[in-house]
Design a protein that fits this description.
Length: about 80
């Protein structure tokens, strides 16, 4: 997969929301984030979205995605 990512100048973002962290080999084309899903959080209830734990989890996920987009933009010279 590494060769395909390099050939296409692509990147892969892995968001691991499982409890145990997984091994992910170092790569210039792969970014790995371990953001465990909170034990007492459910996307099915509106109350969870407004609690601190829900906001913190969602913010970490959003920040990981935004950081990866910014990284891609910097690599392509779009951001300085």
């Amino acid at each position: 997969m590494e060769q395909i990512l390099a050939k296409n100048a692509s990147r892969l973002l892995i968001l691991n929301c499982n409890r145990p962290a997984q091994e992910c080999p170092e790569s210039d084309h792969v970014t790995y984030f371990h953001i465990p899903f909170p034990f007492d959080y459910s996307w099915n209830e509106i109350n969870n979205f407004t609690k601190d734990i829900g906001l913190a989890f969602d913010t970490r996920i959003t920040a990981a995605i935004k950081n990866e987009i910014d990284r891609m933009d910097r690599e392509q010279g779009i951001l300085v």
